[in-house]
Amino acid sequence: MLASVCVAGPSLADAPKAFRDLNHNGRLDPYEDTKQPIDARLDDLIARMTIEEKVGTLLHMSGSAAGALGTGRAYDMAKMIPAITKTHITSFITRLAVPPAEMAAQNNAVQRVAEGARLGIPITISTDPRNHFQAVLGASTAGGGFSVWPETLGFAALRDPARVRRFGDIARSEYRAVGIHMALSPQADLASEPRWPRVTATFGSDPALVSKMVGAYVEGFQGGANGVTRGGVATVVKHWVGYGAEPEGFDGHNAYGSVAKLDNASFARHVAAFDGAFAAKAAGIMPTYPVITGVTLNGKPLEAVGAGFNAELIDGLLRKEKHFGGLVVSDWAITNDCPEQCRAPTEQKPQGVAIGMPWGVESLTVEQRFAKGINAGIDQFGGVAEPEPLLAAVKDGSVSVARIDAAVARVLRLKFELGLFDNPYVDANAAARIVGDPSHIREAEAAQRDAQVLLENRDAMLPIRARGKRVWLYRVDPAAARAKGFVIVDDPRQADLAILRVDAPSEKLHPYAFFGSRQNEGRLDFHDGDKDYEAIKRATAAVPTAVAINLDRPAVLTNVRGTVRALVATFGASDAAVLDVMTGAAAAKGRLPFELPSSMAAVATQNPAVPDDSAAPLYPFGYRHP
Q: What are the recorded GO MF terms, alphabetically (predicted)?
């Protein structure tokens, strides 16, 4: 609430302009004074905070809503209000996916609650990526009218930092329009293990390319090359470090993926992928889940604990050697227990929301995990809303007040830098105009077309002259094909050609695990009986066939390449974008952001920590059809 009273010194009668009386005392205090430098405002505010308010500041909860992990159409204010006013939490991730005006209104409502709290500290609202095709609960979000771009792999295929920076500019404007201030992205993880489910959100397998693209992403989102700006979105680059080196590709969200295996040489490549984030002064870093094994720092093996508890990785390598001074946010739920239902879910007892990732510290109490994490260098704990364990660690002396204050300062500094203390509210009407702006949608759709990679074009099948051609479609919108002039038939034997869209092969190896049931794991090659492969066989037995395959992971295409006439790789593209490339209305300009192995035997014998090292790859890194 704006106070329009005036002050000159301590007097209220002579104030030259309005100010936000955040602590409701009728005076312009230093932390409320926009003319004061941030350091002075920060010092004043921290001096006013109770230990309970400080500890609440170090929790980054999942926003309460009706659905799992905070999904739904509206915040549950019956839970949000006490979390803000009694637990003193001032950061949360939003997973709402509603029209822009509704999102803006929901976020404004939360800010009003915060403004009414004792010190009026504004809320920092974060999000997982929202501007791509993939949506996996706990990793990415879809919907809400945001412009839809290729996955970051598609940007890696284009190798154009300016394009990434422009994407960041547009996404930043959309985020801020609805009241989102922090991006829990990008992934600077190196895609070194082809079976890993999170390859799709990386910038590929080359450390130099990843570094360059991550730097451009950070610059676009934060609003400049020198750190976050007042109108920017703070980026939290993840996952520090070695996450891509998961044996068999099993992900660290799961107990069966709790260890990553590297050696010093491979580890150095994974670290180098983050250099662009540091150069662009990323606001935050998020440590990875798994225990990093096989690595020595300063001549000593890393402690066998998850990265969020590892002082050598955070306080040592990140803070001291890489000179990172920003915010370190833990990945979600690392202090939670992982009970049997989490460790070994079954059909009778699926994991559900019994979610915890305390890898390497399972034997510690929750209080001890908080203490170990913050003393290792964590500033803020993700996915938790209970302050009692950290409060207890402070009160029994296992965490110092000085360490708490240093972490609180990093959280609050970002709020000042983003301008939230001065005005955290957004215009819902403006949000409806900015999010999904037609010019932004056109740029996003152009990127979908450009990022495709032409792998095969036998007998010069592409470009296809669509007008009047009879086509059999598989997983392609008939309306999009008709708009091109195709005549749709129901049987490939009646067609002149076939156009198919398929996904990279995968399995659901852990259907009862919360994240395993949502992730693409396992094999990368097509087998008889796979629905997509059976469609390919049906088409190629009858007519010349063009296939677009979405490469969320590096597929093995050995038994597909020789049967289709045209083969195009996509990394998130609409049917219209694919058909434009196939008919010559647009050109595929991408190059592969990773190699495509020739067999699962080659995948099984490659080193998960080393990128592009399979024997005799079918298509090498950087390939495109000449």
A: beta-glucosidase activity
Query: 611 lies in a domain?
Result: no
Out of 189, 251, 331, 525, pick the active-site residue.
331
Residue in 206, 275, 525, 580 annotated catalytic: 206
**Structure confidence by residue, pLDDT tens digits, 82-130:** 999 999 999 999 999 999 999 999 999 999 999 999 999 999 999 999 9
DSSP 472-532: EEESS-HHHHHHTT-EEESSGGG-SEEEEEEE---B-S-TTSTTGGGS-BS--B--TT-HH
Rounded distance, CA 204 to CA 191, Å?
Answer: 5
The first and second tokens of residue 596, run together, are: 């495509």
Q: Could you give phi then psi for residue 467, rounded to 5 degrees?
A: -55, 115
> Does residue 138 share a domain with residue 6?
no
Instruction: For residue 521, give every residue at least 6 positions away whose Cβ sits within 8 Å of its Cβ, in sequence order, or none.
Output: 195, 197, 249, 250, 251, 506, 507, 508, 509, 510
Residues 236 and 283 in one domain: yes
Residue ranges of the chain whose pLDDT lies below 70: 1-17, 66-68, 138
Q: Are residues 81 and 121 in the same domain?
A: yes
Q: Percent helix, strand, coil in the chain (nearest 5)?
A: 35, 15, 50
Active site annotation includes 160: no
Contact of 15 with 28, CB cutoff 8 Å: yes
The structure tokens listed for 71 are 């999904």
**Nearest Cα to Cα of residue 515 among 323, 318, 351:** 351
Residue with tokens 């440590």: 287
Say what the pTM is. Answer: 0.95
Amino acid code (one letter) for 402: A
Active site residue 459: no
Amino acid at 423: N
